[in-house]
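User: I'll paste a sequence; please echo it back and then give the predicted structure.

Assistant: Echoing your sequence first, then the prediction.
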Amino acid sequence: MFLRRSVILLVVLTATLWPATAAQAHDVLKSSNPAKGAKVADISEVSLEFERAVKFPKVAVLNASGERFQSGEADVRGKKVVQPLSGVLPPGKYTIGFRVVSSDGHPRTGEIPFTVIASSTPSPTPASSATASEASSTPAPSSAAPSAEPVEPTLIPQANETSGSAGGGSSVFLWVVVGLIAVMAAFSVVISRRRRSGR
């Protein structure tokens, strides 16, 4: 009877603890700037914030044609990863692709789409006709978009997180099972002694 109750207890604890150990295998992304699906203007950098500090970040900012617009390497600031951009982004759809190594040593990747809209800054009104004629004769500065190199659509390889999650969770699960077996053995010894003393 005691053995049967111990087996039932072991099954219940396993079903309870298994989802928790699997969920803690990786540090999740808490927020991003721009957020997923956001519409922004005049953006100079993108940032990603995780639950814990991450290492070896790789961040790319791509438009719909696969051109990259990040500048230099990403900077880790505690739990936040900041990636500067190469200049003012032309209006259009973009995707932030990232790959980091979480605090438990497992790689984590993801994509965040966002849209850049045209700036709504109004043009100044001339104070006089002389100012207006002077402004019209002055050539406007070139607003050409920064040059960008086309890259392959798949910039950052997707990591096989299934195997990593299973490895991180299985070690915790193994210790739980070993602990329960030890408790069952201790209870068996106590019951055997009580039965002998009762005789």
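The chain has a mean pLDDT of 74. Strands lie at 29-33, 39-40, 45-50, 55-63, 75-77, 80-84, 92-101, 107-116.
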